Amino acid sequence: MQRRLLLTTVLALTALSAGAESPMRPYPSGASRIGGLMNISIVDRTSGAELPIYRHRGEYWVAGRPGARYAIRARNAMGERIMAVMSVDGVNVVTGETAGVGQNGYVFGPRERSDIAGWRKSDSQIAAFEFAAAGNSYASRTGRPDDVGVIGVAMFRERRPEPPPPVVTPHPSRDEYSNSSRERRSEAPPAPSSMGDARAKAAPPAGSAGNADMAAESSAGAMARQSAPSPSLGTAHGRRETSYVGKTTFERASSQPDEVIRIRYDSRENLVAAGVIPVPQRWPRPSGPSPFPGSDPGYVPDPPARY
C-alpha cells in the first residue's frame, strides 16, 4: 500500500459542516458547496466566507479577487475514509507534480473536515494559495501555464478487507453417528482429571477471535472566455504558513476516482463579461415623457402655495 497524507491541521477544527449531496445534483447558480462523497467549497480567508459557485454551460465557476488568499474547504460526507487528490492550475497541491489522479493526496476520516490553504512544502509548512494574474501563478512560473484557472478534487473510496469464507463442518453420516454413539455408550465415565482436560480443550475455534477482530476493523474502516476586461487569474505561490500533517496508509478500492469535482475561477469582471455571473437588468427609460421619472419613496405632498 502507498503512503498517504492524513490531515491533522488546526484548520480542520474551524471548517464549516455541510450536508451530503448527490453527485448528480444540478446545483443552482449561487450555491456555495458541491460534491457527493465530499462537500467542496472555496473560502475567502480574509472574510471567512464561502464564495458563491456559479453554474454556466455545464461548468462551475467562482470569482476571485487578485491578491486574496483562499482555501479549498472539504468535508467528508461519508461514514468511511475518503482520499482526496487535489490540484490547482493542473498542479498537485501536495507534491507539485503535474497533476494526475494516481498521485498522493489527503485522507479524510469519516465526517472529517478541513481547509486546504496552500501548496504543501513539508510536514509542517505550506505556501498559501493566493489569487494573482495568470502570469504570476505557480503553474506559469514553473512552465505549466496551459491549465491555469481550475481547481480539481478527485475522490477515492478505501478498499475494505474481504471477510474469510465461513468454516463448513461436514455432518457425519448415519453409520458414523451410530458407531460413535455405540462407542460412547461402551466407554466408562472419565476420571475427574480427564474431565478438566476436556473442558480446557473445548475452547472456541482459533479463527473466531481473528474473524471478530477483522470484522471490527472492517466496520471501523467502514466557459469559453470572451474578451476579458481584466487579466485572467491564477494561483500564486504565497507566503509560508504553519500547517501540520501526518502520514497514513490508504489502499484505493479502484484506480479510477469515484467522483471528480472541477471548479474554474477568474475575476468577477471577467465572469460578468462572459455571462457567468448574471447582472440585474435595469429598466430602460422610454423615449418621450416618462410615467415614472423619479424613484423617491413617500406620499403625495401638498402643492406649493399660489401667489
Automatic annotation (TrEMBL):
Cite the record's Basic and acidic residues compositional bias ranges. Answer: 172-187
User: Carries keyword Signal?
Assistant: yes
Give the keywords, sorted: Signal
Q: Where is the composition biased (Low complexity)?
A: 201-212
Location of region: Disordered? 156-259, 275-307
Q: Where is the composition biased (Pro residues)?
A: 281-307
Q: What is this protein called?
A: Uncharacterized protein
Source organism per entry reads Variovorax boronicumulans
